[in-house]
Design goal:
This protein is an alpha+beta fold and 171 residues long. Helices cover 35% and strands 27% of the residues. The chain folds into 2 domains: 7-138, Beta-Lactamase; 140-171, no CATH class. This is AP complex mu/sigma subunit domain-containing protein.
Length: 171
């Protein structure tokens, strides 16, 4: 099975889409996918086959901290691989954004979330999921940079990014 993940959709506790990340192909949109998922009676299985869509689609679901994570694939793919990927995504989000994972944290840190999702899956093929490897490639602005970035001084812009060394840029 050499299937690919087509998209990851995240919904808040009111089932409003807060993030859709497309990896490959032309997957179902978040607004189209949710009603198809919800028409299955509760408790819903974690893997649903939507035969009436074009193309027929597998939907993998996971609920964490009142957030609904849906992954789609229209090709045959190993289910345990996808569920492991979902758990690793949640772990990475909590590692970078802090626990508990909240919708507002995902929305406010979209730049970090997008970097994480892009590094973890390349064109639908799962790649870097180890936390230490992600820390090396995902750039995160440090707390000092956020503090100085909120100070407005005429004629000066301070940017501090923490990666391997502390760098202060003054314009």
């Amino acid at each position: 099975m050499n299937g690919v993940i087509e998209a990851l959709h995240i919904y808040d506790d009111n089932r409003n889409p807060i993030l859709s990340h497309t990896y490959a192909g032309r997957p179902l949109s978040a607004t189209h996918l949710l009603p198809l998922y919800l028409e299955h009676p509760s408790p819903r299985p974690n893997l649903i086959y939507l035969a009436n869509t074009s193309p027929p689609t597998l939907v993998f679901s996971l609920t964490h901290a009142n957030l609904l994570f849906l992954v789609t694939s229209s090709t045959e793919i190993e289910p345990l691989l996808v569920f492991e990927f979902l758990h690793r995504v949640i772990d990475a989000f909590e590692d970078f954004l802090g626990a508990p994972l909240l919708a507002v944290k995902i929305e406010n840190n979209y730049d970090i979330v997008a970097q994480i999702l892009t590094e973890m899956c390349d064109s639908g093929t799962i790649s870097t999921t180890e936390p230490n490897a992600l820390r090396e490639v995902v750039e995160q602005e440090g707390w000092v940079g956020k503090l100085l970035g909120s100070i407005n001084l005429p004629g000066f812009v301070y940017r501090i990014y923490v990666k391997e060394n502390l760098v202060l840029t003054r314009y």
